[in-house]
């Protein structure tokens, strides 16, 4: 049998031209290790399994029979107070989001400090962490007196894909971040260097959500703070210190999976995401 290599090459090129490009970031967003569950007391559900990761999606049928109900979404970003504007500027000293590998390198295409608002913050005895966002995406800001040692303000696009989709989530709950932040500080007359590490979960909710709670795999349960359709929570991470030949000491942070649950005004579960796994910021960069 004669093989026409030129014709085969031409056909392969045609197939490549006609193929739809795969966006790996969008694919990763769709295959996050999580299980989403809508209200439990309903009949008629749709179950979707993606790749090797089990993802269950339960949709509440609309009362009018025209499809799933769609709760009101975040329409506009809130205005900053003077104090919040100052926090945003201090969080992004270069004038906007920074490169993940170089805090002095601003990524101009991701906006300026004027585009960002303090959406919601979580305060505890150790300080605070704020979800600071624009129409495109968000950064996490943890104020510290040691500004040269603060975490880089790295942007994550809403929906994990540029140019960002602030309103583009279905259901009542969208977990946009489960990551860790640092709070460096000094103590004592000798200014001994210290650093606290916090696990942070943040995201968006519909207008129907009155309460969000996070169940950590280690048994802890924490209510989130909600404002203007956004939520955030942080807890002190469990850290283990071990000797290291290069740096002298290395910090090992335990980051177990979490379950995030959104409740309505009557206390009913509106949506729940199970097995939310720890991940980096700047997905979609």
TrEMBL record:
Where does the source fall among the domains of life?
Bacteria
Q: Establish whether keyword Membrane is in the entry.
A: yes
Keywords annotated in UniProt: Membrane, Transmembrane, Transmembrane helix
Transmembrane region(s): 42-60
Please report the name of this protein according to its UniProt entry: DUF3179 domain-containing protein
Q: Which organism is it from?
A: Nonomuraea antimicrobica
């Amino acid at each position: 049998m004669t093989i026409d290599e030129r014709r085969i090459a031409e056909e392969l090129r045609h197939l490549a031209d006609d193929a739809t490009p795969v966006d790996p970031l969008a694919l990763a967003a769709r295959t996050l290790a999580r299980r989403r569950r809508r209200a439990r007391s309903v009949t008629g559900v749709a179950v979707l399994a993606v790749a090797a990761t089990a993802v269950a999606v339960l949709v509440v049928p609309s009362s009018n029979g025209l499809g799933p109900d769609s709760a009101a979404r975040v329409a506009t970003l809130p205005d900053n107070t003077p104090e919040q504007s100052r926090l945003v500027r201090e969080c992004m000293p270069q004038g906007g989001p920074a490169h993940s590998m170089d805090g002095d390198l601003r990524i101009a295409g991701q906006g300026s400090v004027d585009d960002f608002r303090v959406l919601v913050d979580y305060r505890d005895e150790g300080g605070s962490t704020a979800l600071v966002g624009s129409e495109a995406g968000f950064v996490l800001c943890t104020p510290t007196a040691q500004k040269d040692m603060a975490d880089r303000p790295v942007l994550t696009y809403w929906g994990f894909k540029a140019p960002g989709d602030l309103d583009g989530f279905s259901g009542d709950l969208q977990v946009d971040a489960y990551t860790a932040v640092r709070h460096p500080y000094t103590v004592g007359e000798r200014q001994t260097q210290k650093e606290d590490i916090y696990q942070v979960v943040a995201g968006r909710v519909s207008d129907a959500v009155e309460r969000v709670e996070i169940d950590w795999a280690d048994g802890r349960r924490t209510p989130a703070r909600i404002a203007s359709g956004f939520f955030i929570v942080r807890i002190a991470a469990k850290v283990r210190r071990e000797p290291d030949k290069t740096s002298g000491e290395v910090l090992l942070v335990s980051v177990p999976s979490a379950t995030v649950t959104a409740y309505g005004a009557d206390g009913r579960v509106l949506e729940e995401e199970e097995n939310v796994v720890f991940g980096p910021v700047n997905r979609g960069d």
